[in-house]
Specification:
Shape: elongated
Number of domains: 3
Strand content: under 5%
CATH topology of the largest domain: Fumarase C, Chain A, domain 2
Number of strands: 6
CATH superfamily of the largest domain: Fumarase/aspartase (Central domain)
Order of helices and strands: HHHHHHHEEHEHEHHEHHEHHHHHH
Radius of gyration: 31 Å
Largest sheet: 2 strands, antiparallel
Helix content: 55-70%
Distance between the termini: 64 Å
Number of helices: 19
Structural class: mainly alpha
CATH architecture of the largest domain: Up-down Bundle
């Protein structure tokens, strides 16, 4: 009754059909086929090297696995739900192809350490690819920063005009965020890049395996040190998903700004038509669907992290079937992050900047008021007194429907005798920007320095 199950010897009744479908993972874990075959080939070579199985069986196994890989990649492999997962699908097909030798492949390992290996191999490759997509996005941002180096925009706090800054300086803020995201990915990679194979089901194996040899073949710098932890650990996946959530949060914040900047109220930028859609009823509409969708997908990635945290929160050691629920949120997070980064890099590259409109907005809202306070401090007034004097000047301007750039010297002196003719050179947008000549500031030469540092990978 159980002849199709590789674990079926214990059972006298077949698995209920719905249970079979409900518990199977092949529909989503079949994407691990390449990693599963690579890990199995390395395991077989180690078994032969250690004299655990005959060398002729190793050759048959490795050759058979290569043929299965080719069949899968050619789309000629039929995955079976009754065989539950990618591991059993491949092993069953291998035994059909090469006979008894295929049945020896699973010596000294369990599906528990096998799946832990496959996920680590898969995630390791994906992290490297995600880092490459981050580099693409950073490069798009740096190109826009260089192309718009002299564009001035209002900097905001509380979404109110605060101080003028360079648009390039604003873009470099996101460069810093995405550089940290890349750093988190590579830091996470250190804990992903550890070989779990050899832990068996939970306690190791009685066979004289050589875990270090397998690690060397699979390019793992180290092996796990506790068999229980090896098969029950999903910290590495949680860490990746946490790093991905932070990355998506950064993309979502940027999305929000792109959406605002592209509105008719702001008109700071225009997104390429290729990244927008129209309205089915309003012919004038150009909707920023890509940043809106990325903003929405951020919640999806947060949800994936919470889903896996919830799965793991009360599991006793070692492996439990609950842990099959690790793959779908992990895979979805990987796909979402990669897709979001790729489309963002392309969208930012084609974004058009309305420098004239930004400059106009930068001079509004008393954006150089802090510079006036700093001016008074340099004249000898304590900052709190300077702050009060400028606040009264702003209130005067509001009452008289004017900007501080329109005040005469006599009007300035209503608020402090420290004002003189040189105040007029201090309240321009350009003067405000270039005065912030500190490391990390918005002065043009500092922004140029930071672009150069980023280009050099610092």
């Amino acid at each position: 009754m159980s002849q199709n199950k590789l674990w079926g010897g214990r059972f006298t009744q077949p698995t209920d059909k719905f249970v079979e479908e409900f518990t199977a993972s092949i529909e989503f874990d079949k994407r691990l086929y390449h990693q599963d075959i690579r890990g199995s080939a390395a395991h077989a070579r180690m078994l032969g090297r250690q004299g655990i199985i005959p060398h002729e069986d190793v050759e048959k196994i490795v050759h058979g696995l290569k043929e299965i890989l080719e069949q899968i990649e050619a789309g000629h492999f039929d995955f079976s739900v009754s065989l539950e997962d990618i591991h059993m699908n491949i092993e069953s097909r291998l035994s059909q192809k090469i006979g008894e030798a295929g049945k020896r492949l699973h010596t000294g390992r369990s599906r528990n350490d096998q799946v832990a290996l496959d996920i680590r191999l898969y995630l390791r490759d994906e992290i490297v690819e995600i880092a490459a997509y981050l580099d693409m996005l950073i490069d798009s941002l740096l190109n826009q920063a260089e192309a718009n180096l002299d564009v001035v925009m209002p900097g905001f706090t509380h979404l109110q005009s605060a101080q003028p800054i360079l648009f390039s300086h604003h873009l470099l803020a996101y460069v810093e965020m995405f550089k940290r995201d890349k750093g988190r990915m590579y830091d996470c990679l250190k804990r992903v890049d550890v070989l779990p194979l050899g832990a068996g089901a939970l306690a190791g194996t009685t066979f004289p395996i050589d875990r270090e040899y397998v690690a060397e073949m699979l390019d793992f710098p180290e092996v796990t040190r506790n068999s229980l932890d090896s098969v029950s650990d999903r910290d590495f996946a949680l860490e990746f998903m946490a790093a991905s959530s932070i990355l998506m949060m950064h993309l979502s914040r940027f999305s929000e700004e792109l959406i605002l900047w592209s509105t008719s109220a702001f008109r700071f930028i225009e997104l390429s038509d290729g990244f927008c859609t129209g309205s089915s009823i309003m012919p004038q509409k150009k909707n920023p669907d890509v940043p809106e969708l990325v903003r929405g997908k951020t919640g999806r990635v947060y949800g994936n992290l919470m889903a896996l945290l919830t799965v793991m929160k009360a599991l006793p050691l070692a492996y439990n079937k609950d842990m099959q629920e690790d793959k779908e949120p992990l895979f979805d997070t990987i796909d979402t992050v990669k897709g979001s980064l790729k489309i963002f890099a392309d969208m930012v590259k084609e974004m058009r900047v309305n420098g004239e409109r930004m400059a106009q907005a930068a001079g509004q809202g008393f954006s150089t008021a802090t510079d006036v306070a700093d001016y008074l401090v340099r004249k000898g007034l304590p900052f709190r007194d300077a702050h009060e004097a400028v606040g009264k000047a702003v209130a005067y301007c509001v009452e008289n429907d004017m900007d501080i750039t329109e005040l005469s010297l006599a009007e300035w002196q209503l608020f402090s005798p420290h004002f003189s003719d040189d105040i007029f050179g201090m309240i321009t947008v350009e003067a405000s920007i270039n005065a912030r000549n500190v490391i990390g500031g918005t002065a043009r030469n500092r922004v140029e320095d930071e672009i150069r540092r980023c280009r050099e990978g610092k």
